[in-house]
Amino acid sequence: MFTLVVPIQTRLPDLLDAPREDTAWVVTATLLSAAVITPIAGRLGDMYGKRRIVLVLLAAMVIGSVIAAMSTDIVGVIVGRVFQGAVTGVVPLGISILRDVLHEDRIDSAIALISATLGVGGSLGLPISAVIADEGDWHLLFWISAALGVIVLALVVWIVPESVLRTAGRFDFIGAAGLAVGLLSVLLAVSRGSEWGWTSPLTLGLGAGGVVVLVAWGWFELRVAEPLLDLRVAARRPVLLTNLASVAMGFALFSSQVSYPQMLELPTATGVGFGLSLLAASLIIMPSGLIMMALSPLSGRLARMVGPRVLLIAGAASLVLAYAFSLVWASEIWHLLVANILIGFGIGFGYASMPMLIMRSVPPSETGASNGLNALSRSLGTSTAAAVVGAVLAGMSTTHEGMQVPSAGAFQTAFVLGIGAAVVALVLALLIPPRPSPSERHPSLPEPRRR
């Protein structure tokens, strides 16, 4: 869903007869809805059944795909993309279902496999969407996503068992509204700040207002009897450090997804580009997702042998190596291919380890909401990277044939930002305790397995 419109993004103003600043909402709308819906869906899954909420989210994605496929103007496409963003909540809910229904010896490998799909879907979706966009009508992209949604929905009904573990109580509507308003305000400021101006009253007002709302939301959540998210659980050292590392790792991942494709596609005459088509560039990016899928069985076994903390450390170290490589060697296509392969290792190990670390530190009744918060942390990292790295590439530009293009220094700066985020993720991973201390463990959690 996130890479679906990438091949047609530059053509959207012509296709939808709308200004470029308006068509940018086709991407931003999905990001915002995913960030807001994911943690709320996790809590709803804990309370009313994870499989049931998965089906609701899949149905929303299908509805959104049909709306976008039938639309000829920008309003319909943006509305459809808002509904499509809801499907992001399926991933943390799916991970939580695994904890409920699988034998403990199979959970780590299964979590690693589901986590790998986060990269595989984007990596495979890009070239497939490029081919469809080049050969057919752009509406076909949304019809295909609707068909895939129907297939997945049917498979979930057929195969996935209902979880019998439920959290009693009432849903925290005030907490959900507060979280939604705060997140929307902050993410709007971050994602649109480069266009509106980072010091504009609108950007500053939304950013500051969102922070104030989130602080008030946290105060309220700590005092309500049945909160949307138990912040005391989220504040435990392993959970907090894992979520902070998720933000940094999400930033490091998206720094490459913003910078590498532009380098590959820019004309060679610019002195920094390789002149590849969108399809050829996507094939260079694709191996990172395939590596994530191939690593998933190994990640599960390694997690059982050395623990997910070591896996997260290895993933962050691989990202540091990838950007260090790019800072030294980025003059040939194969250089970017090697860097993407290293990123595939880093994200494959890192994304597989995060849910494992979370679920070792939270009670079973909190898995949906806690995994939703972790997914939100990754989204905050990726959205921040998209805004910051995008602003760097736009601000440090040169003129080529009357068009502004990023300079070599802009890409070097993007790589520095990526390696900085990866180093932060590495340091945070090193600070995570090897196993939760007795004071940090929830009473309902079993003693950790000692292997």
From TrEMBL:
Q: Where are the transmembrane segments?
A: 23-41, 53-72, 78-98, 110-132, 138-159, 171-190, 202-220, 240-260, 272-298, 310-330, 336-358, 379-398, 410-432
As for membrane topology, the entry says: Multi-pass membrane protein
Q: Which UniProt keywords apply?
A: Membrane, Transmembrane, Transmembrane helix, Transport
Q: Which residues form the Major facilitator superfamily (MFS) profile domain?
A: 1-437
Position of the signal peptide = none
Q: Name one GO molecular function term.
A: transmembrane transporter activity
Give the GO cellular component terms, alphabetically.
plasma membrane
Q: Where in the cell is it found?
A: Cell membrane
**Is Zinc found in the keyword set?**
no
Primary subcellular site in the record, as a coarse category: membrane
Task: Please report the name of this protein according to its UniProt entry.
Answer: MFS transporter
